[in-house]
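Throughout our pipeline, every protein is held as a single compact record rather than as scattered files. The remainder of this section carries one protein's record, kept here as part of the documentation.

===
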Amino acid sequence: MEQKNLTQNWSRKKRVFVKFTLLFISLVIGLFVTEIALRIINYSFPTFYSPDEYRGYVLTPKIEGWYRKEGESYVRINSDGLRDVEHNKQKPANTLRIAVIGDSYAEALQVPLENAFWKIAENRLQNCSALGGRQVEVINFGVSGYGTAQELITLQRQVWEYSPDVVLLAVTTNNDISDNLRALKKTDEIPYFVYRGDKLELDDSFRTTSAFRWRTSKLSKSGTWLRDNLRFVQLGHQAQYSLKNYLAKRRAQTPTQQISNQQKTETAPPQQPNPVVRAEDVGIDNLIYREPADAVWQEAWRVTEGLLVEMRNEVESKNAKFLVVTLSNGIQVFPDAAPRRAFLEKIGANDIFYPDTRIKNLGTREKFTVYNLAPELQLFAEQNKVYLHGFGENIGNGHWNIDGHRVAGEKLSQKLCEEFFK
């Protein structure tokens, strides 16, 4: 009897094992077929970034795939981790080399490479008579999410390998200033510069955080390899991203969308305006249009301005030219003046170009060139009734679209040729 029970138990375990084996094989075959199908239709959803001990993260060399989070483009990162074509580190003869440093606007994943503003400017500068027949080569060092601190480190650790004649810093006023202060950026996973007395010093304590140690661990790197090389893993990542993004959109709206909703109800009885606009009602990004009234924002501006001067000093020490270009935010160049006025009233600000003007004034004091593109882009948008930011249902908000990059590139190349290189 006991032998019979043992035989039955063994048979049961064998059946369970066979079922799980068949299930596992079916799963593997299903994933294999899914992977092949995704490759046939050219699907991809890569993550373009990897950890870096100096800047927190960088673009991953040689990774490529479709970017569809905003706009759409097929992105290739070159062998040196730049969203650009390959460049020889030795500068060609009779060539003017311009290094562009910036964040997501310079990285420009939202549009094809040939439509990025710096590529437009490069092409147009080939015909600039002020350059005396020299060829122009623009190299893009932009990385999404970088603040001025990471951009300064990029300059020090990567840019000089290419011996540029000009360093162009593209400033996104919407978040570059807040990105430079831990209290506003609210992350411990990147480096910052902090004032100790009157001296800016590097704080790279992110290296010792558990989050960074995990991201650089062998186990995490194995997961990254799977994500970078298997399309069905990317599909799962996209599903997770889409759900997270959907929930985030439901919790918050952009300034222009808020104004649009306000216009829809403009027939409602007028209400007495609130004479005091609280900072917590404005939102961190929108506080950039107001004169800083608290110690946190005053320090963010102090650090940012100090970093710009440090960058100027670094560039001049290498006998190159330094140029700062402030870009634009969606609301600044909204093609209708009424929403811009309503936005300023809503947040309690007076000048939609306040951050641009402040950086321009810094350049005047510290003797480096600053070009403000936003006023010219606003004029173009108004005259042509065109949105320079946003895609699809989010038109007017977010990053530059193809029109935004084109007009910015044309305006920038004109300023460089007629003023900077004269």
